[in-house]
Amino acid sequence: METPILDNHLHLDPVNGRGADAAEDFANAGGTHLLVLNKPSWYFVDDVNSVDDFRETFELTTEVTAAASERLDGRAWPVLGVHPALISQLVGDGYTPEEARDLMREGLDIAAEFVSDGPALAIKSGRPHYDVSDKVWDASNEVMRHAFTLGAETGCAVQLHTEGGDDFDEIAEWAEDCGLPREQVVKHYSDGPISGPIPSIISNEDGLERGAKSGEPFLMETDFLDDPERPGAVLGPKTVPNRVQWLLENGYEDAIRRAHVETPARIYGIDTEQTLS
């Protein structure tokens, strides 16, 4: 079966990791398209104190994504934003939750500029996946809502890093309240079908099988970290192509097309078939 193969969420670290070389592993395994998420800003700068620190992170990610794109038969796009765990780092450094919220929203404004100017495809946001105070939780939700507003204004999707679970209807409703259709909200690191946003399923067999059987839109991802201290974490860059082969062997041809052609077109407006060389 000839098909584009998209990893919807992985990281390439040009400072500390393998960078674009990891994309070559993906390509050699049969992968064709990548969405490259910036790593949290603290991987690239010592302290996040201003929008310039976000801009530096986004520029590094844009550059490594362009280099990765040259290794692929398809292409790669950057997805840029502010990791929700940054709020805990900022509060730990003496910011109030409200001050941290404001700085993170300014970072998202910069990410939206990269979308509007062309290099970036979508925005990344979310809220902590661990216990936080009520004030930090409320501030995080306000940051996420700001991302939805920016997505609506720029006409782009928003990828979310959040807590686990399968019911995110409230988040989808918030997005719609901000003018962003729920089908342009993607829940990163889903373990199967969910309610509300579109799931980006971490590419373990059980979750993928649930997604394939659901008949609903879904994406596949590795959340590869490109961390030299954990070279295969979360999943290695060859995983999505290998799991596509597993889906094919188990008779899920329709699900493969759904995850790698139809859903990317629906969410991001990209044509993974036409962008194959």
Please render the helix and strand layout as text.
Blueprint: E1 6-10, H1 20-28, E2 33-37, H2 51-69, E3 76-81, H3 86-92, H4 97-117, E4 122-126, H5 134-154, E5 158-161, H6 169-177, E6 185-190, E7 198-202, H7 205-214, E8 219-221, H8 239-249, H9 253-268
Helix pairs in contact: 1-2, 2-4, 3-4, 4-5
Q: What does this entry look like structurally?
A:
The chain is of the alpha/beta class. The protein has one domain: Alpha-Beta Barrel (TIM Barrel), CATH 3.20.20. It contains 9 helices and 8 strands. It has helices spanning 20-28, 51-69, 86-92, 97-117, 134-154, 169-177, 205-214, 239-249, 253-268; strands spanning 6-10, 33-37, 76-81, 122-126, 158-161, 185-190, 198-202, 219-221. An 8-stranded parallel beta sheet has the order 1-2-3-4-5-6-7-8. β1 (6-10), α1 and β2 form a beta-alpha-beta unit. α1 packs parallel to α2 and α2 runs parallel beside α4 (97-117).
